[in-house]
Design a protein that fits this description.
Number of helices of chain A: 9
Radius of gyration of chain B: 23 Å
Structural class of chain B: alpha/beta
Largest sheet of chain B: 9 strands, mixed
CATH class of one domain in chain B: Alpha Beta
Structural class of chain A: alpha/beta
CATH topology of one domain in chain B: Rossmann fold
Order of helices and strands of chain B: HEHEHHHEEHEHEEHEEEEEHEEEH
CATH architecture of one domain in chain B: 3-Layer(aba) Sandwich
Number of strands of chain A: 15
Oligomer: heterodimer
Shape of chain A: globular
Number of helices of chain B: 10
Number of strands of chain B: 15
CATH superfamily of one domain in chain B: NAD(P)-binding Rossmann-like Domain
CATH superfamily of chain A: NAD(P)-binding Rossmann-like Domain
Strand content of chain A: 25-35%
Distance between the termini of chain A: 24 Å
Largest interface: A-B, 35 and 37 residues
């Protein structure tokens, strides 16, 4: 049984690991291969700050909220393990700020200690009159992806640096099942008008006195188009750019200025911070995550593709729930082909 | 001498007359006719001395302020402390007073934290948890409404600390030494203050050159002025590099704590009453490290571990009062500002303001006596 995973961002690698761990013991000769043109540290996941936080409004998408919760609980369980530091996993508390009262988010009971901000706390942020405080988690892609890669290599998963141009290409080489984790460029394999880039740009600064995340929200400009400050294990990420439809991966001086000025206004102490790095990435934006099976015809034969892409600006936040869901779809494919004992039921 | 410029023989004669006048023997140590520039000596260059000096230089700009100390950052007791704004309760000081000092300190540092000065001053905002193994010991502290967002921890949050039954979550401020002390020193000098390195064995040595002495010698007061009510409480800590940590964790017993700062994390600690021993004990270091790793397992990966020892200048109450020292016909006004024990950082600005106020009173008394002498 040859499984080809396309894409080596957080989605591709975590899905590969999930499938391997659940099925290697019960599927004879399970071979998993990862194909990608970009590997860590050059994936979209590497550039993201790594804060676990879904969008404010789940738009009634309970499934995604459940996957978010599954991911949070999974990561929380790893917090006290010796692996945490290598994974790039650590707790992080902070502030979500608004200019007017808003309903509580779908994830208020998933994170720890969720509460509203007190008047004294709001004095920290002139211009904002309402907000939340909670403890969430950080999962830094630059650490997590190598950690996943190491585990996959230990399990005998093979990696290929190759841009796949069609599903047929892999099927011709003998892949039995394809897992499509191609993120923002999924449209190159199969047109998807619902998938668009949500371009982001970030500046990484050295500001070790910043110990909280601060995410501002402006209902008119939309998610992540308002300044945010997210400290990491070494550097602090400054951002606030979300440009739908912009494929440009080059850093824009105008966006740099926007980010810098607005973040310094939000947190005056940043004026003394030294800029160390800058990066632009394309969030794989879709109105909902595409997580489903599809039968692909190749000549006279047919194969199964499981799509797992379109995680927008919440890939790290939702990844494990999606990996588990993908593994369940994988299991049902195996059952249909009678290629394995029924898999153990996993939550 | 400050007043050698412009002296004429007539002035000198007048001063001589005043000095010898029986009613004015009090002022033998003073040179200026109108106390136009009172000379303040602040003894001690730790947190208390520096903050008092800065406060005096700002609230009484007409005076000159000189810090005199034998130790400076990074070798003061303050440098060993983590600098967290989590007060300790002094049994001998009224609670309303402690609350006022803490609030003044918190508000003062809060303003610095929100400015571009925060990194140079070494100030950061940090959230975290104070946890208790037994519920009964968790009372509402007097400072719970001064720190930010104080509340009980949720069940889910407590899962992170399997051996603990109850906890409090809040956000407070932290001062990093040596940054904060260096920043205070810079502010003092910017206000025209001076800093001299010298060991003072006797306060009377200062009488010739200074009008008022502010005693901020901490544990040194025991020897310098013979205060037997002050005693050391030895604290050993580890300073480690673990930049992924951004929450503080404090065991309610006050013995185990993890305080992340700007450049390092302080792990503690001990409270050994009566010990003057400044040498690090390797067994204690291991014990601190093990206990902190039990609270926060990722500390196993901490690097660059350094040991520090400090003697908390402990006293039932902070001594913050005026005293007029008398030696024959000589008098020396002293403002005492020492004995902050475990709570130096939490109270420092409040006590600095009070010390400055007392210095102002001393100046007023001196000026008052002087104007009476003119009549």
């Amino acid at each position: 049984m040859r499984v080809a995973v396309i894409g080596a961002g957080v989605i591709g690698l975590s899905t590969a690991l999930c499938i391997h761990d659940q099925y290697h013991a019960i599927v004879p000769a399970l071979e998993i291969e990862v194909y990608a043109d970009r590997y860590t540290p050059h994936t979209t996941s590497d550039g993201a700050a790594g804060l676990w936080q879904p969008y404010l409004d789940d738009k009634g998408n309970i499934q995604e909220t459940l996957w978010n919760k599954e991911t949070f609980d999974y990561l929380l369980g790893h917090l006290r393990s010796p692996e945490a530091e290598e994974m790039g996993l650590f707790p992080m508390s902070g502030y979500n700020l608004f200019t007017q009262p808003v309903p509580d988010p779908s994830w208020k009971n998933i994170v720890l200690g969720f509460r509203k901000l007190t008047p004294k706390e709001l004095e920290l942020f002139p211009g904002y009159s309402y907000g939340w405080f909670n403890t969430a988690l950080m999962l830094e892609g630059k650490s997590y992806l190598p950690w996943l890669t190491k585990r996959l290599q230990q399990r005998g998963v093979k990696f290929f640096q190759k841009k796949i141009r069609s599903f047929g290409e892999l099927l011709a080489e003998g892949a039995d099942i394809i897992i499509n984790c191609t993120g923002v460029r999924a449209g190159e394999l199969q047109p998807d008008p619902e998938l668009q880039p949500g371009r982001g740009q970030i500046i990484k600064v050295l500001a070790p006195w910043v110990k909280h995340f601060i995410i501002t929200h402006d209902t008119e400009s939309g998610i992540y188009n308002s300044p945010y400050v997210i400290p990491g294990s070494k550097l602090v990420t400054l951002g606030g750019i979300f440009q739908l439809g912009n494929w440009n991966e080059e850093n824009s001086p105008r966006d740099h200025k926007t980010i810098w000025e607005r973040c310094c206004q939000l947190l005056p102490s940043l004026q003394k911070a030294k800029a160390v790095d800058e990066w632009s990435g394309l969030r794989p934006v879709r109105h909902r995550v595409r997580l489903e099976r599809e039968t692909i015809h190749h000549g006279l034969s047919k194969s199964e593709v499981i799509h797992n892409y379109g995680h927008g600006g919440f890939g790290l936040t939702i990844h494990w729930g999606c990996a588990m869901a993908t593994a369940r779809l994988f299991g049902s494919i195996l059952q249909e082909k009678k290629l394995a004992r029924p898999p153990q039921s996993h939550l | 001498m400050f007043w050698t410029i412009g002296w004429q023989s007539s002035t000198r004669n007048t001063i001589q007359y005043l000095r010898n006048h029986p009613a004015l023997k009090f002022h033998q140590n003073w040179c200026g006719l109108s106390m136009s520039k009172p000379r303040i000596a602040v003894i001690g260059a730790g947190l208390i001395g520096l903050s008092a000096a800065v406060c005096i230089s700002e609230t009484i700009p007409t005076c000159s302020v000189t810090i005199i100390s034998d130790e400076f950052t990074p070798n003061t007791t303050s440098d060993v402390a983590a600098g967290m704004l989590i007060p300790h309760t002094y049994p001998g000081t009224p609670i309303y007073q402690q609350k006022q000092w803490f609030k003044e300190t918190f508000d003062y540092l809060f303003a610095i934290n929100n400015s571009s000065e925060a990194p140079s001053a070494g100030i950061s905002l940090v959230s975290g948890w104070q946890i208790f193994k037994t519920s009964s010991s968790a009372e509402l502290p007097f400072w719970s409404d001064i720190v930010l967002g104080f509340r009980a921890m949720t069940e889910m949050e407590l899962k992170k600390f399997p051996q603990y039954r109850f906890g409090q979550a809040f956000t407070t401020l932290k001062c990093d030494c040596p940054s904060y002390l260096l920043w205070l020193e810079k502010r003092l000098k910017g206000n025209g203050g001076e800093v001299h390195a010298k060991r003072i064995a006797n306060l009377w040595d200062l009488q010739n050159n200074y009008d008022i002495v502010v005693n901020c010698t901490g544990i040194g007061s025991r020897q310098l002025i013979g205060d037997l009510k002050i005693y050391p409480v030895r604290g050993q800590v580890l300073k480690v590099h673990a930049p992924w940590l951004n929450h503080f964790i404090r065991d309610g017993d006050g013995l185990s704590y993890i305080y992340p700062g700007i450049h390092n994390v302080t792990l503690g600690g001990t409270r050994e009453k009566g010990s003057w021993n400044l040498s690090p004990d390797p067994n204690i270091s291991k014990d601190i490290f093990d206990k902190c790793c039990a609270l926060e397992p990722s500390l196993q990966k901490a690097q660059d571990i350094k040991v520090r020892v400090g003697l908390r200048p402990s006293r039932l109450a902070v001594r913050l009062q005026k005293e007029i020292l008398v030696q024959g016909e000589k008098k020396l006004p002293v403002v005492h500002n020492y004995g902050h024990g475990s709570g130096g950082f939490s109270m420092h600005w409040g006590t600095a303001k009070e010390a400055a106020r007392l210095v102002g009173e001393c100046i007023a008394t001196l000026q008052d006596s002087l104007s009476k002498a003119k009549l």
